[in-house]
Amino acid sequence: MKVSSVIYVSFGSVVIHSDQQLLETAFALEASGHPFIWVVKRHDSSSSDEAWLPIGFEERMKGKGLIIRGWAPQVVILNHPSIGAFVTHCGWNSVQEGVHAGLPMITWPSFAEQFWNEKLITDVLKIGAGIGVMEWVGWMQKEWPFVKREDIEKAIRRVMDGGEEADGMRKRAKELGKIAKGVVDVGGSSYNDLTRLIEELKTCVQQQNNQH
Fold it and tell me: Which of 8, 91, 126, 156 has the fewest CB atoms below 10 angstroms from its CB?
């Protein structure tokens, strides 16, 4: 695959969309025309029922789209050079991983702090575009607001199809990615802070041992 050509779609470990929403997402991914990796979790993971996929979808997407059922090595995937955008539920861990990978994001929040994280991505950092979800729900509800395929496809195209806005998002995301990698490298602020914490804890342990 070409550099920055593939969409990675994942909603973390808690958000599980209905089969109807999965079907709508599949139609949107196909209509977008972009290669994708799509991590899918279902309420009944033991079921072999494939009604959540359009008829013939996987055959048509062979060589262009990959569905991962269950867990995926997200950090490894996000940092592959072929990945061009991250469709995310805006959980804080995923946001940090997307920023560290230097990727623009397509935001699809559901609950908790995810809507605040979306605002950080789209309005403050300006490295992403929203799907258009406006309704906050409790995570125990397990039924998220339905998003139409047209809105999903529109957001994907806004980030992936180029143009001044998309190019700006990608440029800013890459710059932030470099900064994020720098702070955890040797000599970076996070590296130094963690080193100081470890040294302080070692000193505390030594002092306790000396008292005994």
Answer: 126
- SS3 of residue 105 by DSSP: strand
CATH code at position 125? 3.40.50.2000
Amino acid identity, position 118: E
| Separation in Å, CA 66 to CA 3, 75, 82, 90, 113 | 17, 17, 13, 22, 29
Q: What sign for the dihedral angle of Cα 138, 50, 12, 37?
A: negative
Question: Which tens digit of pLDDT belongs to each residue from 107-126?
Answer: 999 888 999 999 999 999 99
CA distances from 123 to 88, 116, 212 (A): 16, 10, 55
pTM (predicted TM-score)? 0.89
Q: Which residues pair with 61 in a beta bridge?
A: none
Residue-level pLDDT at 9:
98
Q: Which residue range is the domain that position 42 belongs to?
A: 6-184
Please give the tally of structural domains in the chain.
1
What value, to the nearest 5°, has the Cα angle with vertex 40 and ends 35 and 41? Answer: 170
Give the distance from CA 127 to its chain's centroid.
13
